[in-house]
Amino acid sequence: MIDARLAGHSGIGVYLAQLLPRVVPPLAAWRPLVLTRAGQRDAIAVSLPTNIDIQTWDVPPLSARCLVSTPPYATSSDLLWTPHFNVPLRCAMPLAVTLHDLLPLTAPALAGTGRAVPVRWWVRAIRARARAVLCVSEFTRGEAVRFGACDRDEATVTPLGVDPTWFAMPRAETAAAHDPPTIIYVGLLKPHKNVTRLLRAFAQVRNHIPHRLVLVAHHARVRNVDREALALITQLSDRVELIDDLPQKDLVARVQAAAFAVLPSLHEGFGLPALEAMAAGRPVLAGRAGALPEVCGDAALYCDPLSVESIARGLTLLAGDAPLRARLSTAGRVRAATFSWDACAALTVAALARALAESPRGAA
After folding, report:
1. Domain check: are 191 and 102 in the same one?
2. What is the mean pLDDT of residues 115-134?
3. Is residue 36 assigned to a domain?
4. Strand, helix or coil at 304?
5. Domain for residue 364, yes or no?
6. Of 40, 199, 203, 228, which sits 20 to 30 A from 68 (CA to CA)?
């Protein structure tokens, strides 16, 4: 049984969209059952074989109801794979869990009030019932071990991948030659994404560089939205553009058209927007925090995410140094090519198959 209720969300939605069609068919012998919310079925079904069973579990994930709700068909299933730490607490079925981050435990002040307590409950359930713990980075595996979700040798690192559309070279007229040039940020507008310091840094350098700052930052109806960042965006509206969401094709085009990308996060379990920007040939200014150094390697320029001055220096350097941008562009594409969704899926299938083999009923 696969909990796909977070389909359509930001990072985890991308993860599900890429992995479900790659993971479900190889596990057909165990009769996969995909659980989704009402209204999502058709979008999920189009990417799966027609004989895959898709059922509704219309309980909002990461909600209070989710803490006490039992998934349908729990008693007749051998394993539940959930793509986040929000595992069901009121049933004893074995689990496979993908951990993207443990931010509510790592930095509760950034995650929002009241989130640490349920996450501790989920971590205890994972520790007791998980047959497979999948971590998207070595950094996240370290956090999972530190907070007691698993032992190091019990967790499998399954790095995320890059959709091939990001590697397509942009048309000449959309390449990074816009007037004025743009700097792009992609991600949620939440405190741990550090957009407030990015905006303060941009305010410091705006009179010294010609660039506009484009924020593709989901913020409408987002819990724990960064309200200080929203206020600064209003103050800087002549040079800062805020976009809540973009279709995938338009997002790729926006990133390809930017002079460079910036992801100054205080915490990242992986950092997919940085990897996608590198695949698109865009230089990246990244915060030296979380999994970003692990993902970007030596193919990015780093800043201290706690220092507005360090972020400002990075913005000025990348804006004014064409040879540096060219070097990072080439290195970034090479680095990004080492990550693939096929490799992530293969590791995931192997881990799930091992977990399923522990079932007394085995495969059908």
Report:
1. no
2. 94
3. yes
4. coil
5. no
6. 40
User: Mean pLDDT over residues 137-164, rounded?
Assistant: 96
42 and 13 fall within a common domain:
yes
Say if strands 284-287 and 301-303 run parallel, antiparallel, or are unpaired. parallel
323 and 350, same domain (yes or no) = no
Is residue 291 domain-shared with residue 352, that is, in the same domain?
A: no
Contact status, residue 111 vs residue 69, Cβ threshold 8 Å: no
Residues 95 and 107 placed together within one structural domain of the fold: yes
Look up the domain containing 69 and give its range. Answer: 2-161+341-357
pLDDT digits (tens, 9 = 90+) for 5-44: 999 887 899 999 999 999 999 999 999 999 999 888 888 9
b/e burial code for range 207-245 (CB count within 10 A of at least 16 → b): eebebbbbbbbbbeeeeebbeebbebbeebeeebbbbee
Stretch (H or E) spanning 214: strand 212-218
Amino acid of residue 217: A
Nearest to 304 by CA among 285, 284, 288, 316: 288
Q: What angle do helix axes 11-23 and 341-357 make, rounded to 10 degrees? A: 70
Query: Residues of the chain with pLDDT > 70: what percent?
Result: 96
pLDDT of residue 61: 86
CATH number for the domain including 93? 3.40.50.2000
The predicted structure's pLDDT at residue 363 = 47
Domain count within the chain: 2
Q: Considering the domain boundaries, does residue 99 fall inside one?
A: yes
243-301 pLDDT per residue, tens = 998 999 999 999 999 999 999 999 999 999 999 999 999 999 999 999 999 999 999 99
Residue 351 resides in a domain = yes
Q: Which residue do the tokens 């299933």 mark?
A: 77
Enter the DSSP assignment of 221. T
